[in-house]
TrEMBL record, chain A:
GO cellular component: Cdc73/Paf1 complex
Protein name: Anaphase-promoting complex subunit 4 WD40 domain-containing protein
Keyword match Repeat: yes
Listed PANTHER family: SUPERKILLER COMPLEX PROTEIN 8, WD REPEAT-CONTAINING PROTEIN 61
Automatic annotation (TrEMBL), chain B:
Coiled-coil regions listed: none
Listed name of the protein: Uncharacterized protein
GO MF annotation, one: RNA polymerase II complex binding
Ranges of Basic and acidic residues composition bias in the record: 702-719, 813-830
Domain of life, per lineage: Eukaryota
Region (Disordered): 607-650, 677-830
GO terms classed as biological process: regulation of DNA-templated transcription; transcription elongation by RNA polymerase II
Keyword annotations from UniProtKB, A to Z: Repeat, TPR repeat
GO CC terms: Cdc73/Paf1 complex
Alphabetical list of Pfam families matching this protein: TPR_2, TPR_8
Length: 321, 830
């Protein structure tokens, strides 16, 4: 299990890069890399050479998140201005602009079927579900327990929803907040099932295992990466090694490894069978905000790829084997 | 002996023999006989010496001392017989009579300046008397004479530990190398010390090696698999969460995993755990601490480290539980109490914290610098706290804090934290120059010491620069601090940075810093408020500029829209959220932004018109230039073409002549073909060439035509362009007229801005007062880490345990937030 450097794009954006994702391959082309930056632009890159393929503008105040539709042709981006922009990856044409209250959109993810876009609702203490055919708001899942007797500000303080993730079967939805709460929703019933305990600091990244619909990975400011059984509320293991806040986590498509990016400027590769860090990469010169494994699929694409982005304005691409 | 039983010399030699065979009663008998048999002082001295040595060997030091002294007394000069002096010295050392021992050893040195044992003994005495330099000299001299004496190297190492880490490490390593080559056993303490020193020098891998060797076999050999094993049993790995439970150890033992922990290795295991903590392998560290506590429940340091780990991940309940656990073992443990006070302070439990620190003071008789500093900080915070500011109360708190800081300084003039505290008080009182001096010194001292980290002093220094209006320096200081200590992730310092940019009127940088802060702390709405203000200021500033491009105006309008959006959100929120800002003020901002946006529309239109004008002007100029250029080119090309045609004409003529000539030749050749068959080959070559030339000619012609076409095309374009220019001109004229209106609009705004400026100045003043609150926040003197480090090194039983871990004292910034936030960015809208 190893990462080998393939390509570095220095100054890929004019400012810190905060978000990265892969748009899966379509029949016409291979997978594309999408990055979002404080410079207010979203860029699309192709091939192992990372040639810039397109640029989507329209955001103000810095792009916080990008997400790609599983079909590969549509992507979404959000910025600090709290607009969610949906655009065509290949033509860069804007498909829809979803307006939310300021500070009520943070990270997001399409469900595996591609029918719903879940957007972490920030200050609204909820996850917003947008219908991807009508681009209307379908549902809002509150991270707060219904029976809480505390009210108003008390109730929502610390419950700023930062990120959200779908299980591979699309039945569970996880979200995490500034105070470290991780909530698990049963999507079909539209209900909060339970919280996963363990983090007491912001959890900025979540990802479900691509092979096991129950296994959830979390990355937190407390420098830990944790592995949970999301259905049974059990903590499977906690992994530490980063010297700073862990900003991003992604699971390899084969389900055997994790990659994490942290404020200590390093990217780590974790072997899940050993539950230990097996490689530390120190190529970035500033904190690493995003790591993303390329999804499988497309012509002749067997090799694994990992892309990482950082405050140092660069994108790094690695071969994962 | 049988011949002459009274020969004292022979008796002495015999006694010597029996001494080495260990038959001390025979020595005594023989010596009594010898003493009776002679009057020779040297011989008597030998006899007394033998007696003394015998008692010495039996550990009867008092008797030994008596006889050594008797032996010495017989001698006129130490040169006659030196050994009793050495013996006496040793015995006196044992009896703790350092002075006499010293003088005896010095006598030995006079006679035998190269006596290593004596040098080492001297070294010990100097060290015990606190003359470290002299001690060091003695040991160094001894190692020069005998470099293979591991013991002397160890002594040197221990003497250097507190002053020269690398020197100490080198000495320990010398000892280690000597021991490795010899059959002697390498002591665990030596390895531990080497490990600790590597740890201090941040050489974690080397430290790891040393600890590993020191620990030898045990469960700690393969922690990965042990932890994995205990995980698989439980299906649950919450070491950090489930702090007090020993279940996993019971189960491991049930599975036959031996969890032996020899008493001598507890310290090393603790150090190993500290090392894991340092390399962020927290699971392993927690496992080891828990193992230590499982085996030795009274090991308070392990308790406190567990508490520190819990605190680092913000698990405050577990943290408090561990501290209380430590206090159950030892209710007067200063470290545990200090830790508790700190946690209470962070939880905003002011009264409890004060009580806890006072308790520490009582236990230590006021000599514990940490608690004094903590109380100083407590008073400092108290001065800046509270919604309503009571000037009198504030002053008394500050005075009290100052007193406490000075108290620490008088006890320990090198205490950086106390100095930092004094600096804070000075800054608070507006004495920036002196504060700067102090902070700079502290910062330099801290930078020169690898074991100390005080990010707060960087921040404080930056605050002072800000207070002095040296924005560039302040920015640099904040940025360096962020990078050096916080991985660029501290939103609070980003806020300070933004504030500096704000003061320096660098709106875009200000906004950028704030956006980074928001990205890190999205739930802090105050940051959004500040960002909105930065954008509003930017727009105002650009709109006021005498010269600005339409792009700038457009940008400022879009910023203004963003600002308005943010303000409207915030005004909606203040109703039911308490985020610490004034609802009315936000309303005012909303209104102001709306108003400004209206005004900006006019600006925008004007600017866009202006832009169009200049664009048109530029366009006209450009086209004019292009036309000229094209004309000139066309002229040139025509000339060239003419010449070319002439040349071609000539060439053609020449060629035609040639052809004629060839034709004639051919005709002639055909006639003579039969005669000149040999020439055929040649002739064919000739025709080939001809064809070639023809081809080329044709090409040339084509080129010429094409060029002509292109030229014509260009002309066509030009003419159409000309039409355009004429068509656009009327617009340009209209734009000119409008510019008057624009000026009027400007005038209106100018009023606004002058007002704004005034209010800003006022605000700035009040801000600068409150600004000092920021140092408050930071003032938080992390307690004397240096001290903790000093304690940690118990020489051979060295213990890394920074019992008062840096974690414990990480500064509390949350308190200052409120105060600062309020003042963060007063806007000029009111």
């Amino acid at each position: 299990m190893k990462l080998a450097s393939l390509k570095t794009v220095a100054n890929a954006h004019n400012d810190s890069i905060w978000a990265v994702t892969w748009a899966p391959a379509t029949e016409a082309r291979g997978a594309l890399l999408i990055t979002g930056s404080l410079d207010e632009s979203v860029k699309v890159w192709k091939g192992d050479e990372l040639e810039q393929d397109g640029m989507h503008t329209g955001h103000s105040l810095g792009v916080v998140a990008v997400a790609a539709h599983p079909a590969g042709s549509i992507a979404a981006s959000t910025s600090l201005d709290s607009f969610v922009r949906i655009f065509d990856v290949d033509s860069n044409a804007t498909i829809a602009v979803l307006e939310t209250s300021p500070s009520e959109a943070w990270l997001m993810q399409f469900n595996p079927k591609g029918s719903v876009l879940a957007v972490a609702g920030g200050g609204s203490a909820s996850v917003k579900l947008w219908n991807t055919s009508t681009w209307r708001l379908d549902a809002s899942l509150s991270v707060l327990k219904a029976d809480t007797s505390v009210k108003g500000a008390e109730k929502t303080s610390g419950k700023f929803v930062l990120t959200t993730a779908w299980s591979i079967d699309g039945e569970l939805l996880a979200c995490s907040t500034m105070d470290g709460t991780v909530g698990i929703f049963d999507v079909s019933r539209g209900k909060l099932i339970h919280y996963l305990e363990g983090h007491n600091m912001p959890v900025r990244s979540l990802v479900f295992s691509p092979v096991d619909p129950c296994i959830l990975f979390t990355a937190s400011d407390d420098k830990h990466v944790r592995m949970y059984d999301a259905k049974n509320t059990g903590l499977v293991c906690a992994m530490s090694g980063h010297g700073g806040k862990v900003h991003s986590v992604d699971a390899s498509p084969d389900g055997g490894a994790l990659a994490t990016g942290a404020s200590d400027r390093t990217v780590r590769l974790w072997d899940l069978s050993m539950r230990a860090s097996v490689q530390t990469i120190t190529d970035h010169a500033d904190q690493v905000w995003g790591v993303a494994f390329r999804p499988p699929g497309g012509e002749g694409v067997r090799a694994g790829r990992l892309a990482t982005v950082s405050d140092d304005k660069s994108i790094n691409l690695y071969d994962y084997s | 002996m049988k011949i002459y039983p009274y020969c004292a010399m022979a008796l002495n030699h015999l006694a010597n023999h029996y001494f080495f065979t260990g038959e001390h009663f025979l020595v005594e008998q023989l010596m009594e006989a010898a003493l009776a048999a002679t009057d020779n002082p040297v011989l008597k001295s030998h006899s007394f010496y033998n007696l003394a040595r015998s008692y010495h060997a039996k550990s009867d030091y008092d008797a030994a001392a008596v006889y050594y002294r008797a032996s010495v007394k017989e001698l006129k000069s130490p040169k006659d017989f030196i050994l009793p002096f050495f013996g006496l010295g040793q015995v006196q050392l044992k009896l703790n009579d350092l002075k006499s021992a010293l003088s005896n050893f010095e006598k030995v040195m006079e006679v035998q300046p190269d006596n290593c044992e004596c040098l080492k003994a001297l070294g010990h005495i100097y060290a015990q008397q606190g003359h470290n330099d002299k001690a060091l000299d003695s040991f160094k001299k001894s190692t020069r004479i005998n470099p293979h004496d591991a013991e002397a190297w160890v002594e040197i190492g221990e003497l250097l530990v507190s002053t020269d880490i690398s020197g100490a490490l080198d000495a320990f390593k010398m000892a280690l190398n000597i021991l490795r080559k010899s059959p002697e056993k390498i002591t665990v303490e030596l390895l531990n010390n080497i490990g600790v020193l590597h740890f201090e020098r941040s050489e974690y891998e080397l430290a790891q090696q040393a600890f590993k060797e020191a620990l030898g076999e045990g469960v700690w050999m393969d922690l990965d698999s042990i932890i994995l094993k205990s995980l698989d049993m439980d299906g649950f790995a919450g070491f950090a969460n489930d702090i007090t439970s020993n279940d996993c150890f019971y189960r491991l033992e049930e599975q036959g995993v031996a969890l032996d922990l020899p008493a001598g290795k507890v310290t090393i295991l603790f150090n190993q755990a500290r090392l894991y903590e340092q390399t962020h392998e927290l699971e392993k560290a927690a496992f080891l601490y828990k193992l230590i506590l499982y085996k030795c429940p009274d090991y308070v340091d392990a308790c406190l480290r567990m508490a520190a780990i819990a605190q680092a991940s913000n698990n405050m309940d577990a943290c408090m539980e561990m501290i209380n656990e430590a206090l159950r073992v030892d209710e007067k443990n200063i470290d545990a109490l200090s830790f508790r006070g700190n946690v209470e302070l962070k939880a905003d439990d002011w009264l409890k914290a004060k009580e806890t620190f006072k308790a520490v003071q009582q236990i230590t008789d006021g000599k514990d610098a940490y608690s004094v500093l903590a109380l100083g900080n407590w008073n400092y915070y108290a001065a800046g706290r509270g919604e309503k500011r009571d000037a009198k109360l504030e002053a008394t708190h500050l005075e009290k804090a100052r007193e406490l800081f000075y108290k620490v300084l008088s006890q320990n003039p090198n205490n950086m934290y106390a100095a930092n505290g004094i600096g804070m008080i000075l800054a608070e009182k507006g004495q920036f120059d002196m504060a700067k001096e102090i902070f700079t010194q502290v910062q330099e001292a801290a930078a020169g010491n690898i074991t100390v980290e005080i990010p707060d002093v960087w921040v404080n220094l930056a605050h002072v620069y800000l207070g002095l209006g040296q924005f560039g320096l302040a920015v640099k200081m904040y940025q360096n601090c962020l990078k050096k200590f916080y991985h660029n992730t501290d939103s609070q310092i980003f806020l300070y940075l933004a504030r500096t940019y704000y003061e320096a009127e660098q709106w875009q940088d200000c906004k950028c810093s704030l956006l980074r802060a928001i990205h890190l702390a999205p739930s802090n709405y105050m940051l959004r408020f500040d960002a909105a203000i930065a954008m509003q200021k930017f727009s105002t500033a650009t709109l006021q500029k005498a010269k600005r491009t339409a792009d700038e105006v457009r940008q400022s309008v879009s910023e203004l829209k963003n600002a308005l959006r943010l303000f409207s959100l915030l005004s909606g929120m203040t109703g039911h959220h308490s985020h610490g800002f004034d609802g009315k003020k936000v309303e005012m901002h909303v209104e102001y932004c709306k108003h400004l946006l209206e005004a900006a529309k006019v600006h925008l239109e004007a600017a866009e018109r202006e832009e169009q004008q200049t664009k048109q002007k530029q366009e006209v100029a450009r086209k004019h230039a292009m036309a000229e250029e094209a004309k000139r080119k066309a002229e040139e090309e025509r000339k060239i073409e003419m010449e070319r045609r002439k040349q071609e004409e000539e060439i053609r003529r020449v060629l035609e002549e040639q052809e004629n000539f060839e034709r004639l030749k051919e005709a002639w050749r055909i006639k003579n073909r039969e005669k000149f068959q040999v020439d055929e080959n040649e002739e064919e070559g000739g025709t080939d060439k001809k064809k070639d030339k023809k081809k080329r000619k044709r090409e040339k012609k084509q080129k010429g035509q094409r060029e002509q076409e292109v030229e014509e095309g260009n002309f066509a374009h030009e003419s159409s362009d000309d039409e355009n220019v004429i068509a656009e001109n009327p617009f340009a004229a209209a734009g000119l007229e409008d510019s008057d209106d624009e000026a009027a609009a400007n005038g209106m705004d100018a009023d606004d801005t002058s007002k704004a400026k005034k209010s800003r100045k006022r605000q700035a003043m009040s801000d600068s007062e409150e600004e000092e609150e920021a140092p408050t926040a930071r003032s938080d003197s992390d307690k004397g880490l240096d001290e903790a480090m000093g304690e940690a090194f118990g020489g051979s039983d060295g213990d890394i345990g920074e019992s008062r871990a840096p974690e414990m004292y990480s500064s509390d910034r949350s308190n200052d937030d409120e105060g600062r936030k309020k003042t963060a960015f007063e806007s000029d809208s009111d």
